[in-house]
Specification:
mainly alpha, two-stranded parallel ribbon, 6 helices, 43% helix
């Protein structure tokens, strides 16, 4: 709902509108080379989260998110349209400030960061050795680029030196 004097939209509506809001800017984002971030930035495809963090994020997602949000809405083309060329902080901040819908910001900060790692794993990004940073500045330096070629959206992360490892919701 709109709050008088505030451009805020209810989180339920905002989550549904995000892909539409960024659709207009997605053409420019796709044309931009996001494989070589500058200024200390790292591309998600370079491996910015470990498998253990994605598993923790999956557990948090199952407990806190799956009752309202299907993981399918955050994979493949919908994910690319909404997030390509943005940062891990952008996803983290949206989730942290608007979810869970009945009590935004109620989860520990690490849970929100782990959920972001899980969303990256759902989109087939390569697993790395270091965890996604917890602090805002570190998350702002993690640039979302296109997932590595050859990995089907939703197939899970590719482990360095190994094949795809599925991180799927088990209901």
């Amino acid at each position: 709902m709109l709050v008088r004097g505030s451009p805020l939209i209810s989180s339920a509506i905002a989550w549904r509108l995000i892909p539409l809001m960024v659709l207009a800017g997605s053409s420019a984002a796709r044309a931009q080379d996001t494989t070589a971030p500058a200024n200390g930035e790292r591309a998600v495809s370079s491996g910015v989260y470990p498998d253990a963090q994605a598993r923790r994020g999956e557990e948090s997602y199952k407990i806190n998110c799956v009752s309202c949000h299907s993981a399918k809405a955050y994979t493949g083309e919908a994910f690319r349209i909404a997030w390509l060329s943005r940062t891990a902080y952008d996803i983290f901040d949206l989730i942290r400030t608007q979810m869970p819908e009945d009590n935004p910001g109620a989860l520990p900060r690490q849970d929100y960061v782990d959920i972001v790692a899980y969303l990256f794993s759902l989109n087939g990004y390569t697993v790395g050795a270091e965890e996604l940073p917890r602090e805002d500045d570190g998350l702002k330096k993690v640039k979302i680029d296109a997932p590595p070629g050859g990995v089907a959206p939703g197939a899970g992360p590719t482990v360095r030196g190994g094949g795809p490892r599925a991180h799927r919701l088990r209901r």
